[in-house]
Amino acid sequence: MRHVIALAAVVGLSLLSAQEKPKSALDKPQMEAYVRHLLAVIPEVQIKIDDPKPSPIPDTWTVPVHFTYGERSQDETFFVTKDGKHIMRGVVYDIAKNPFQDDLDKLKTDSAPMFGAANAPATLVVFGDFECPVCKAEAQALRENVQKTFPTQAHVYFKDFPLDSIHPWARPASIAGRCVYKQSPAAFWKYHDWVYEHQEEINPDNLKDKVMDFAKTESDIDSLQLGRCMDTKATEADIDASVAQGHALGVDATPTIFINGRRLVGNYPWQNLEQIINGELDYQKTAQKTAQKAPDKSDPCCEVKVPSPLNK
């Protein structure tokens, strides 16, 4: 009888222990359930939680969370205390660094189409989709105003980010644009403007014919070479690389613009963009004056560089 009572007590304690198991965000199923409830995520969305990684915040872990719905995906970063009791959602800034440095380190503009002053202090990097109506409005604002308002102070890079799941001809249009760019960087911007101008007339079936008609009007484009490039998708690797860079930056909507690393999502009126660019230029002037008051470079203990948001 004593053995039976003892066994019952052990079973009871085990059940109690299981019931009283503390909740922890370091337990992936518990964190998934919490995040799903927090963000009202529907059951059809898949959630994948990565293993905890070192965090810039003391006594916390960085935990990347990935959301997938069909062909769509989105990533978020949470910070979890090492005891698993609390989670934080957002961005952590190091006061000693440029607040946009993490994104600046990921932004690569090599071989990307560019217009504006080459050595300008304000750099705009646009992730765009040729089929996106909001991108059309933003692109027209940039093309009409950047060089007129900031002839020597700003330049713009274009990065392809076709939203394949909702825009069926965006990727082929990006491939065609890169084919044009390979022949003539200047002609790319004519193509860029032409695509957005004729966006409502284009569909997946007539895209190539429309592009070939455009090419006939441009003396610096070889139509035969362009058609072959489009048919073989010769530039698709460039599009894939641009999209991968966007994903690494957490881009999930178009247009997304980075102004000296500052992220802007959606269509911003030109007057807002102008104010932000002027703010960046003013910031750099202030930083330069501060640097000029620093010790001379001849001092062997120190080195003074002109601060810039683009310096790593």
Question: What is the CATH H-level superfamily of the largest domain?
Answer: Glutaredoxin
Quickly give the structural class: alpha+beta
Order of helices and strands: HHEEEEEHEEHEHHHHHEEH
Q: Report the biggest beta sheet as strand number plus sense, adding barrel if it closes.
A: 5 strands, antiparallel
Can you name the CATH architecture of the largest domain? 3-Layer(aba) Sandwich
- As a whole number of angstroms, the C-alpha radius of gyration is 26 Å
Question: Helix coverage percent of residues?
Answer: 40-55%
Indicate the overall shape. globular
CATH topology of the largest domain: Glutaredoxin
Output mean pLDDT: 87
**First and last CA, distance:** 75 Å
- Low-pLDDT stretches: 1-17, 294-312
**CATH C-level label of the largest domain:** Alpha Beta
**Quaternary organisation:** single chain
Give the helix tally: 10
Number of strands: 10
Protein described:
By secondary structure, the protein is of the alpha+beta class. Helix content is 43%, strand content 17%. It has 10 helices and 10 strands. It has helices at 2-19, 28-38, 101-106, 133-149, 170-183, 185-197, 207-216, 223-232, 236-248, 270-292; strands spanning 46-49, 53-54, 60-69, 72-81, 87-89, 114-116, 122-128, 154-160, 256-259, 262-265. The strands form 2 sheets. Strands 1, 2, 3, 4 and 5 form a 5-stranded antiparallel sheet that branches. Strands 6-8-7-9-10 form a 5-stranded mixed sheet. β2 (53-54) and β3 (60-69) form a beta hairpin. Residues 1-17 and 294-312 have low confidence and may be disordered.
